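Ligand-bound model needed. zinc ion.
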Amino acid sequence: MRYTDLVCRTEKGIYCPPGDFHIDPVRPVPRALVTHGHSDHARAGHGAVLATAETLAIMAARYGEGFAGTTQEAVLGEVLDLGGASVTFHPAGHVLGSAQIAVEKDGLRIVASGDYKRRRDPTCRGFEPVACDVFITEATFALPVFRHPDAGDEIARLLASVAQFPDRTHLVGAYALGKAQRVIALLREAGYDRPIYIHGALQRLCDLYEEEGIRLRPLEPATIEKGGRKDFAGAIVIGPPSAFADRWARRFADPVAAFASGWMSVRQRARQRGVELPLVISDHCDWDELTETIAEIAPAEVWVTHGREEALVRWCALNGIAARPLHLAGYEEEAE
Ligand SMILES: [Zn+2]
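Prediction:
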């Protein structure tokens, strides 16, 4: 059997012919296996969805209970027989519930890692390397210039700024799923125990993380009804990036605009967004994490889904690993 007989690329995404399912399809399909809850990977409208319990809960929170015809919970490490292929889910370390999906048949194993990172994250299980013949990876930050600093050091910079400017509101942009909760959890780990104010768009997902046992409290809504601008002086307010462009952001006292993203290492991006305090906190691998992961797993082949594919394919070639880009469309590099 060739690798592409087991898993191949279609315009809807990664497809397994023997099992007749797609992984993270970008359009509605009869049967989808979903690696994690980010909206470019987890879409509504599939016939059946197989994902971890946390990912199913995240999809229900975002799209409503009827997001798929039927759902099935995947337990990490449990072997599932799907048609002619067997499937197992393994932690990916990206966001709560995120998983790599290993597809196996006739002694061949292909792992679709979805989005993943190797750094410690108090809000989700760490990535577990799975031996395989083909490792399918993203390449969002696959250039040697991308070397993410320690997230704890970035949080320390935020807290130093809060101490330095006690009359200003620190307004932190962070993606609603994963990044926002990770920033809050890291603040708690650093000993910050004051209320953290959150935009309404973060409420349901923060509640869900709390229900999963990840300590974020005390959280308060960052609503104007809460009181005047003074209430937020010296406070940390977290909102999704989209909220920063609208009136919501203008209600705060002399705000320090911060933004938590792997892209904040690119000064031009920070400037374009008007970010005063860029926090380089990423839920994706940087260059070293990507290349060290591939070296550790040592697959026969690497397939690169999206991002800076050429640089990673070239690195693989130089290191004696066959690699090719899949040029998958529909996955957003900004939504990290
Ligand atoms: Zn993601």
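The first strand starts at residue 8 and ends at 10.
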